[in-house]
Write a structure and sequence with these properties.
Blueprint: E1 5-9, H1 15-25, H2 31-42, E2 48-55, E3 60-69, E4 81-89, H3 98-112, E5 117-121, H4 127-135, E6 139-142, E7 146-150
Helix pairs in contact: 1-2
Amino acid sequence: MNGGWSIREADEGVADDWASLRAALWPEADRTEHALEIRQLLERPERMRAFVAADARGAVAGFAEAALRVDPVNGADTSPVGFLEGLYVRPESRRQGIGRALVQAVERWVRSLGCRELASDALLGNDAGHAAHVAYGFEETERVVYFLKRLD
């Protein structure tokens, strides 16, 4: 626990809050689509995981979703590779270490699967996302922006 919040694995109990945060990150999808994708993610715990940051009352401040990828990942030297598929923290909850703690939860999960690298990407114009990746220890590998964090 830090700053009144804690990180835990996402489950159906936080699905509504999680879907709201997904809609903020990926507004091109509607809530029905987000709910379906959440259900699919929860059904594949060996390949996909999500983590949430929640306060003492259970209110969700942020989430991270990750997958185990066996396809080639730009910049990665190994396979499989952990891939940070999405990371979002509510604007009012930023700058409290929540994003970093969520990424660390993802790192622990992919390490437990034997991965030595964690990759991610961000849209070309997402300067805030690029800065966050660098702050979390990722290195830019090429433009159409991909990031890689070596997990030693």
